[in-house]
Amino acid sequence: MITDRLARALDDRLRLSPLTRRALAKIFPDHWSFMLGELALYSFVALLLTGVYLTFFFDASNGDRVYRGDYAPLDGATTSAAYASTVRLSWDVRAGLLIRQTHHWAALVFVAAIVLHLARIFFTGAFRKPRELNWLIGVTMLTLALANGFTGYSLPDDLLSGVGLRILTSVVESIPLVGAWLAALALGGEFPSDAMIPRMFVAHVLLVPAVLVALISLHLGILVRQKHSQFPGPGRTEHNVVGSRLWPSYALRSLALFAWVLAVLFALGGLVQINPVWLYGPFEPAEATSPAQPDWYVAWGDGALRLFPPWEFRIAGHLVPGPLFPGVVLGGVTFLALYAWPFAERLRAKDRSAHHLLDRPRDHPVRLGVGVGALTFYAVLTVAAGDDIIARLVRVPVYDLLSLFRVLVLVLPLLAGLLAFLVARALRRGDAAGIGELTRADLRRAAHRSIRPPGADSGESETPARDRSGERIEMWPEGDLWRWRYRDADRHLVITGSRAVLSEEEAASAARVAYPGVDRVVVPGPPPAPPPGPVRAALRGWGRAAAAGSLLLAALLNRRRDRRRQERERAEPAAPPETADKASTGGGRT
Amino acid sequence: MSARRPSATERTASRRIVAAFGVSAAGAVGFAVTYGLGGNTAREGICLAVAFAGLAVGLAVWARRLVPVDRYVEEHEGFTSPPTEQAMTAAVLTAPDSPVRRRGLLAALGLALTALGAAALFPLRSLLPFDRARPVRALKDTPWGAGVRLVDADGRPLRPDDVPADTVVAVFPEGNVDVGDAPAFAVRLEPQRFSRPPAGGHLDGLVVWSLLCTHAGCPVRSYLKGTGQLLCPCHQSSFDLLAGARPVAGPAARALPGLPIEVGPDGFLRATGDFTAPPGAGFWDSP
Ligand code: HEM
Ligand code: FES
Asked: Both B58 and B145 in a single domain?
């Protein structure tokens, strides 16, 4: 076999075998929500591929250029080179428009995937020790993605994006003391400057992508080193990872996802028009389009600018302009809060232990409430960015709508957060298995009696130390190698060790780490092969993911039956809650 | 894995996978042909989407039907190394000859690096060319000044009659039509309706104001006829031209700066000075 020969040839030079075997046996938990990060990764790859193609045709200059080409209304017009080349790219470069639109769609999907990925990490507590580092890297990548989206959007130098850039410049200028300097240094003068397109271009195609590539590598490197976290379940402990192996099943599935991402992006790029800059016209300082909405991921900032009341004041005679608060302060607080959350939560819960088992969102009502409240807040801001369009659609004066949004943006997040908090608490305490089964009494109880102070425990849902009579580790020789597996007779559960090892001791030590305290036996010969044919259970999630409208909804609704049973089991013993609490955080880790 | 005889389900799966990859290849060929025939964005997009969707389906079926789906487990060693290990590492790092022990030298090194880092910041100043005005000055100053004629977007100088009633006309300083902070507009209003006089004065109801919104600098271009109100398309601030262009709704907090004008000896409109306040969005400045 060629593969075999190639593998040998490489190994002769680099001694890769041990590493490769471990890498190929890496375990990926089977849960749809683990796919969101990959979605972001693959849209980034799509951005790189399409973006490089665009650079061959895009002329990153503010200088004049005469457009000549198929788009008749602009034929012969003198505009900036950036604008003229973008129109050329769209009308006269064969496949240019496809790639340009795919690039733009990929940007929208990229940021969306990052946000959903972040939300899943947040609600499941995957940012806890030891994964805080990757949380910090992730938040940094989100800011870079936003920045790169904004510069990319501004590159074509069209009227719509030019107005957006002017607003951003104003927001920067609103910073006390240094604002005017920052803006002037960035643009090389006053807006609109001759240097702004070339500078944004360098940032867009070189600086930020390079940093992103470095951070993604680091992110994935840390992920491999730390291994995945997983949801609690039968056979899953703080000391193992249960799921599918990288090779062959996960590799195939992940490649399939990559292909899906490209399929969807090219379908969008080919069929759904986006950013038709030739219709907007080139940027002119005295022109504006109406209505003017930015790409979705900056809309929250635009919405905040709309809703914030006209407050300006002077400090020692110096003006502190209005956009400072909705622009700079809100953005700064948002990202500071994101950066600080893991550490704040750790301080508050006084929890210094490592966690490899995830929370379900309900396990931590405070976190859920804060998260849902925050998401609602940004969602209201995003919708508010379209207030002029909504006003036109529903024929309501825009200022009535503005007043409404000013109230909603404060009230809705509180209500939503409180509701999420109560539902989580009711689910955690009561015996309802899901939101559908919650009774009003459950909710009322959740609102009144504070049995456990919320957040006092870290929401750890480890199974308490239990009778392990049904469990055992089976090890057997396979030629020169050894394999092992975990069997839980009571649950009819069999989980195979991810890779073969060279000796019985090695198998035993791996099993001991993964299942501390479970008895090991040596069994003769390989156990019967698993029945061939489709076993959907593990993969069901992938199909569901495609259908799941939003992470939040899905995270709330997605419950596994076995956990339901666990929940009941935990609720059953009528021990005083304090002791139960201690048992659930202290047990199982020994 | 093992050399089992393919079962019926496996054979069906294989056939489906081959079919999916076949569709993928067809999509790729379709893309190439579309491109070769002159290109068509929608058709190219569909072909590529089909090509990748075929690939995706084939791979997904492969993963689902032909790969034994078993659950596997990998041990997770935890991250704190054994104490001896940590101690050994620390010992290597802090051995007697270790550079970490030379506190004095380290301080000197830190000093040198700090100086280098600080020096490296200096060239950043070049991002703003030295021959340009300092930022706050630049934001305050515009090309307007005494004697600068008002021209339209095409550079033609304007007479008072060129501004009809009940519409706004964008005006620019002659020779500087493209400058970012210069755009202004002229409008003809009835002076008896003024509840507050325009900051820059008026010529029989002819008033000129900065076109840039005092909120975040967008050009305020929508004039609501009759009401004398001007609406900013960006965040819907509105300015009451009859009341000195003060903001009456939305997020803007300051009135539009006015431009003092007169009619020159040549009969054309000209400014008698700069705007009454810095135009556009606010910044850290003192009056
Ligand atoms: C984080 C990754 C990236 C994001 C979020 C992003 C986003 C965008 C967006 C939204 C646009 C505007 C497209 C339009 O005109 O409608 C754009 C344009 C552009 N991007 Fe990117 N991009 C990314 C990475 C890249 C990379 C890696 C390159 C090249 C190496 C690149 C090259 C370009 C070029 C040349 C344009 C201008 C093309 C044009 O529209 O005329 N981008 N980008
Ligand atoms: S820029 Fe005019 S309202 Fe914001």
From this structure: no
User: Is any ligand 1 atom within 6 A of the Cβ of residue A294?
Assistant: no
Note whether residue A278 is domain-resident.
Answer: yes
Q: Average pLDDT, whole number, for chain B?
A: 93
For A223-243, write each residue's pLDDT tens digit. Answer: 999 999 999 999 999 999 999
- Whether the CB-CB separation of B74 and A26 falls below 8 Å is answered with yes
Which residue of chain B comes nearest to A265, CA vs CA? B49
Residues 6+ apart with CB under 8 A from A407: none
Report the relative pairing of strands B72-75 and A240-245 from DSSP bridges.
antiparallel
Same domain membership, residue A429 and residue A489 = no
Q: How many domains does chain B have?
A: 2
Domain residues for A401? Answer: 363-447
Q: How many CB pairs under 8 A join A and B?
A: 322
CATH number where B174 lies:
2.102.10.10
> How many angstroms from the chain centroid is the CA of residue A108?
13
Parallel, antiparallel or unpaired: strands A493-497 and B72-75:
parallel
A573 in a structural domain: no
Decide if A239 contacts A516 (C-beta within 8 A): yes
Greatest alpha-carbon pair distance for chain B in Å reads: 102
Do residues A554 and A505 make contact, with C-beta atoms less than 8 angstroms apart? no
Start-end of H helices in A465-576: 504-514, 540-547, 551-557, 561-571
Tokens 């990548």 belong to A141
In-domain check, residue A562: no
Q: Is B263 helix (H, G, I), strand (E, B) or coil?
A: strand
B210-238 residue pLDDT tens: 999 999 999 998 888 778 899 999 999 99
**B250 and B166 in one domain?**
yes
Q: Is there a contact between A312 and B254 if contact means CB atoms under 8 Å apart?
A: yes
Provide, rounded to the nearest whole percent, the portion of chain A with pLDDT above 90.
73
Specify whether A132 is located in the same domain as A63. Answer: yes
Backbone conformation region of residue B153, classed left if phi is above 0, alpha if psi is from -120 to 50, else beta: alpha
Domain boundary (B22, B48, B66) is at B66
- The answer to whether the beta carbons of residues A265 and A46 sit under 8 Å apart is yes
For the complex shown, is ipTM > 0.90? Answer: yes
Which residue lies with its CA nearest to atom 31 of ligand 1?
Answer: A51
Q: What is the pLDDT of residues A404-433, one digit of tens each?
A: 999 999 999 999 999 999 999 998 876 666
Q: Are strands B269-271 and B261-263 parallel, antiparallel or unpaired?
A: antiparallel
Tell me the residue type at A444.
R
B282 and B144: one domain?
Answer: yes
Ligand 2 site, residue B216, Cβ cutoff 6 A: yes
Instruction: Give the ligand whose atoms come closest to the C-alpha of residue A114.
Output: 1
Interface touch A267/B139, C-beta < 8 Å: no
Looking only at the bridges linking them, the beta strands covering B72-75 and B150-151 are unpaired
d(CA A91, CA A571): 65
Q: What is the DSSP letter of A297?
A: G
What own/partner pairs with CB < 8 Å and gap ≥ 24 does A429-435 have?
Answer: A429/A571, A430/A571, A431/A567, A431/A568, A431/A571, A433/A559, A433/A564, A433/A567, A433/A568, A434/A557, A434/A559, A434/A564, A435/A556, A435/A557
- What total of structural domains would you count in chain A? 3
Q: What is the domain range of residue B268? A: 139-287
Lowest mean pLDDT among A240-249, A530-539, B183-192: A530-539
Is B212 touching ligand 2 by the criterion CB < 6 Å? no
Look at residues B276, B192, B147, B124 and name the one whose alpha carbon lies nearest to residue A178.
B124
For residue A483, which phi and psi values (nearest 5 degrees)? -130, 165
Predicted pLDDT of residue B4: 62
Gap from CA of A197 to ligand 1 centroid (Å)? 13
Does a cis peptide bond (omega within 30 degrees of 0) precede residue A156? no
Cβ contacts of A525 within 8 Å, gap of 6 or more: A476
Among chain A residues, the shortest Cα distance to B54 is held by A259
Last residue of a domain, one of B16, B34, B66: B66
Cis peptide before B198 (omega within 30 of 0): no
Residue B83, both tokens: 């104490």
- Averaged confidence pLDDT in chain A: 87
